[in-house]
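Q: DoxX family protein, please. Structure only.
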Amino acid sequence: MQKVSFLQKFTACFVASFVLTAIFLVLGRSLPGIIPELVFGLVGLSLSIGLIYPFVWQRKEKNRPEPSLIELAFWQSVIRYGLAFNISIFGFKKIFGQQFIVPYFMYDEKLGSLSGEWLTWHYFGFSYPFGLIVASFQIIGSILLLFRQTRLMGVMLLLPVILNILFINLFYGLNAGATLQSILLSIGLIYLLLIDYQRLVAFFLQSKDHLPGLNWGGPEVKNSIRLLMIIVPFLITFNYYYQEDRPKNIRGTYAVQAQQEAASGSKDPLLTKIYFDRYGNCTFLYADAKKQDGKYVYKGDTNELKVVFNSTEESKDTLLAKVTPLAQNNQLKIRGTIGSSQIELNLSKLK
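A: Structure for DoxX family protein:
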């Protein structure tokens, strides 16, 4: 009978303990009345079993040879069933509106004041049908995990979803509990993927395409075309970087610190902020909450600025100005004309 190495024993037991830990943690948050002490006690017990039992298993096998493959199959089943149980909970939570919940007062907060976590929840909670699609992947994938014949299919369906959630949790600053859940679930799915390593290699690398290969003048021509499929997109995007990002620019959000304007009969409200965005877009925000949108061109070598405002009933003017960096960091002076008016602005960069 095929022997099971100690590494296989330890890995199976330890990953199973991770999956059980994830279940206890999610149940602690999902079921009312469960005290934290019980949850953490069960977590400690599962991790202890994962650490200790491989040594017991190894000793049992030395003293009295037993069918280790059956025991290995048991622990792998614990992983499969545990993952299916846990992931399906999150799927059903999305269906019944228990995820992506944003407090009502958050809808009145400014976008720039929200944390990465609330931005994420607001974004994903904006579309209920999208949540249903993610939930269907999680539930269908969980069902596939429950059967040995479809286990690998379930892993292939779930792993991209869970890894995407993991990266969102990590890079958008979600809470530690959500991040830990996604880490534990990812470990379990990666384990199930790796135990089918030979099947994956045979399917992706050793299987032959039934369609005939195209004769495009030999391997040199084919490889050149393949290379062009990567190089050309790189050159397209690099050209934008070279033209737009690399030269000196004034992109950012600026607070207007001082404004002087001389014009006959001018009753324009005071500017409060100016936004110079990518692709030449800009917005001028006034004290009365009105705004003017436009397109700007800034020449870094001559410090010349031209802003053409979008045509509206209130504004059909063009700003022609000179930009002068001030001694203080991130501060600019803009001096020029809007139509027949002379204007001078002192700006302080906010971000």
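A: Brief note, in case it's useful. Residues 6 and 58 are 7 Å apart (CA to CA).
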